[in-house]
Structure formats: C-alpha cells, structure tokens
Specification:
about 350 residues; alpha/beta; TIM Barrel; Type Iii Antifreeze Protein Isoform Hplc 12; 2 domains; 8-stranded parallel sheet; 14 strands; elongated
C-alpha cells in the first residue's frame, strides 16, 4: 500500500496518523495549530472527518436519536455533529497547511457527497470509520476511486469485515488495510484485544494496524510489536480546550512520547539474523571455555582435576570437554593457560 510517498508494507516503519476529529473546537486557527503540533509530535499524517450534521443523520428528538451509554450521554445526534464537524470550506486551507508541514493529509468521508468533495482535493487515500463499516454502498463508492482504503473494524463482526472487503474487491480495489479498533471512548485497555492483529493479517491477507481510543501509549506499543503498520490516535493541542473528543485524545507531549516509544519498539524488534554484531561478538569474551586449572606436565593425562569449563571464552569450546578427558598433553601447561583439543594426543 502506498499513500503519498509512504510505502506501507510488512517491512516498513509504522505510519502514524494524528486524527483531528472535532479537536479544532470550532476554530480554524486551532485546527491549523493542531496540524503544526502534530508535525512537531512526529506524526506522518493528519486526518480529518468530512461530514455535516445533515449527511450524518436527521434533526430529530425521538429517543432513537438521543445518545446513550457513552461520554456523549443524553446528547442529540444532530446537535453533536453540528458541534463536531469540520467545515468543508476549511478543508482546502487545512490541506495546504498539512502539505506545507510535510504531512500526508486525507479524510474519512461519511457519504457520497463527501467523497466527491474530497476528490476535488486529490486526497491520496480514504479512511472508513468504524461505524461506517456496514455502509456497503459508501464503501463501494470510495473503492471505485481506486485509492488506498483504510477500514476500522470497531463495531464489526467477522461477516461485516468480509462484506466490506468484498465491496472493495468488486470495485477492483485490493489496496486495503484493516485497523483493529475498540469503539469505546475512551476504550478500556483490557478490551484492546491486540492478538486480533495477527489473525486479521493472516485471515484477510491485508496490512493491519490500530485505531486506538485507549489512554496512553501501551496499546500502540503492543500493536507495533505484533505487526501493526498503521497507528491512528486522536490528537489535541490541549484537552483543557474541551470538545466532544477531548477526553480520549492525546496532547502534543503525550503524542510525542508515543511516537518515540513506537520508534524504539520498532528498533527493538530488529530483524531475523543469527549473525552477531561487533558488540555481541565482544560479549562472547565472557562466555565459557576450557582452561587449565592445575599445572600439566608433558604426557600427563587430561582430567577433571586439571581442566575446567570456566570464564572467559578465549580457549577451547566446552562442547569438547568430554572428548579431552583421557587424552594426553603434548605440551607443558601452567594454571590459567589456554588449552585446545588440537594440541592433545590420544
């Protein structure tokens, strides 16, 4: 999968996305500063959400349209989206700021009109939000644009994932990544279920990653260790500014620390290689080898009384210890001398 200049594959560094979401809090100046802060924090990408309250739902006060059992408890859906949306007239300027900052920039569309609008901005990829994974017509329309598609699986059953992938492939688009996601805000860490990453990768043969709503960096670091190649986290300048998503978003300091930890985790993972580095080779000095521990005369029988496997590691390999027992010395040795099987006689 290639997004702008980033080739995302099993051997690439993690592609780190800062999700702006509603964290502009209604101010384009805040949105611009958030983009710049995301760059400072080490993000590779800034991502928006492109919708209006009318493209998301209807203005209705019936019980079905009142949010329950979340941090937005009691709020009307339409009014929440009125507060949270990123005005479409901001997008052009925000995309330009992201470009100037050297950040990849794309968005999650929530209906076909949003896709059409984002196409005018020449987005390099699309994100399907967790709650839209069941919107097969939308996924088909996004897939028809032929660009990489990242799909969050937060509310998805296995059959939902299968249907979404089939929708992409029907449109001739196999350029897909799946993000493990827990659609709770914030998400409990014990529901992260990161073992799913390897199963998603194996079962569906796609790039996998994490869309994370837990607090802190633990889950992104675990995801990195388990093969995630995309990590998305909600990003805010300062939670004190408030807003619908503030409580589960990372500030600049936290995001910076997360990026640092992810890069350290990548470095620690390394590669499959049984060759030793120079430092590791030097460490073998402290391994064991066979040394003379009592003076030995020429012709004397080698025994457990005059040789032992001890540190350091400059003498004969311990694997030959039993072979050396019973052989005869062909030289004179003092305690502490190196001794090698090639110099002994049967």
């Amino acid at each position: 999968m290639k997004i702008h200049d980033y080739n995302i594959n099993e051997n690439s560094p993690v592609f780190i996305i800062a999700e702006l979401s509603a964290n502009h809090n209604g101010s384009i100046e805040t949105a611009i500063e958030t983009i710049k802060a995301a760059k400072r924090a080490g993000a590779n990408c800034i991502k928006f959400q492109t919708y209006t309250s009318d493209t998301m739902t209807i203005d209705c006060d019936k019980d079905d349209f009142v949010i329950k059992e979340t941090i937005w408890e009691g709020q009307n859906l339409y009014k929440l989206y009125q507060q949270a949306y990123t005005p479409w007239e901001w997008h052009g300027e925000l995309f330009q700021v992201a470009k100037e900052e050297g950040l990849v920039c794309f968005s999650s569309p929530f209906d076909k009109t949003a896709v059409d609008f984002l196409e005018t901005l020449n987005v390099p990829a699309y994100k399907i939000a967790s709650f839209e994974i069941t919107d097969i017509p939308l996924i088909e329309y996004v897939a028809s644009k032929g660009k990489p598609i990242i799909i969050s699986t937060g509310i998805a059953k296995k059959e939902d994932i299968i249907l979404s992938l089939e929708a992409c492939k029907r449109m001739g688009n196999n350029n897909i990544a799946l993000l493990k996601c827990t659609s709770s805000y914030p998400a409990p860490i014990d529901e992260a279920n990161m073992v799913m990453l390897s199963d998603l990768a194996k079962r569906f043969n796609v790039i996998v990653g994490l869309s994370d709503h837990t607090m802190g960096s633990t889950v992104p670091i675990v995801a990195t260790a388990l093969g995630a190649k995309i990590i998305e986290k909600h990003f805010i300048i300062d939670r004190s500014i408030g807003g619908p998503d503030a409580s589960f978003s990372m500030n600049e300091k936290e995001f910076t620390e997360m990026v640092k930890s992810i890069r350290q985790a990548e470095s620690a993972l390394g590669k499959i290689d049984y060759n030793l580095t120079n430092k590791q080779l030097k460490g073998r000095d402290f391994s064991r080898s066979i040394y003379v521990v009592a003076d030995i005369k020429k012709g004397e029988i080698i025994s457990t009384e005059n040789i032992r496997s001890i540190r350091p590691g400059f003498s004969e390999h311990p694997k030959n210890f039993e072979k050396m027992i019973g052989m005869k010395s062909n030289n004179i040795y003092e305690k502490g001398d190196r001794i090698f099987i090639k110099d002994l006689i049967i």
